[in-house]
Amino acid sequence: MTLLFISLIFILGLMVGVGTTFIGMGGGVLIVPILPLIYPLGMREIVATTLLVVFLVAVINTLGFVKRRLVQWRESLTLGMGSMVGAYAAARMTRVIPEKWLLWIFLTVLVGLTYKAGGDAYRSRKGKNRAEESETKKFSLPKLLIIALVGGVIIGLTGVGAGILFSSVLLSFRIVENSEVVPTSNAAVMLTSAAGLLGYVGEIHWPAVGAIRLDVGLILFLGAWLSATFGRQYQHLMPREWRGGILTLILLLASGKIAFMAMSL
Length: 265
Fold this sequence. Notes:
Layout: H1 3-22, H2 28-38, H3 43-67, H4 73-93, H5 99-126, H6 141-158, H7 163-172, H8 178-198, E1 204-205, E2 208-209, E3 212-213, H9 214-234, H10 240-264
Antiparallel strand pairs: 1-2, 2-3
């Protein structure tokens, strides 16, 4: 691996760290579309390596947020534990699902999330949600479990991390306070990505462990860890409508890239 490859992967890691702390996304929504442009890996290797990075970053972030008492454990544990089942099962399915199908599944998920995040950001911008800005709504456990299972399947099949799904749901439906969206999402992603990661573990052939590329993953994690350390200190200052707007923009860019990749196969 050349110095240029290492530098580009490290920069991508920096972007992931910012995304996990300010937006609450797991990181896969950035790594999956961008990493193939930087380093030649197969789709399954990309998803597996993404899960490693998502898990490590989520652990670091969660520990930091717990110290500040920003994690809502009822919601994060329900989302995290429920999605673990779907994530592990879906990860095993990638052994038989063609790469093109994985890309189209990923694209479908991104389009749906873009629509939801964009709608919420627009309503907040117009002031329709401002009267409820400080209100939160408790979801029943069955509803949260359904969301968790769907998120688990998404993370296992595509490596998107489910964090972007959890953040969208927590933000749009006001299940927790704005300052608690990212911390609660990170705690849930920590559990979900751990389950998904197990499905890719296999024989050790350095730098690979099964489908996981440790060299690429650790470089990504180092960059993400550095930027996340900064982001955790200031994420609570970001307004709800800004968070939703940035989330929508990232989803649009990622959707375009994945669509191009799918049509090229």
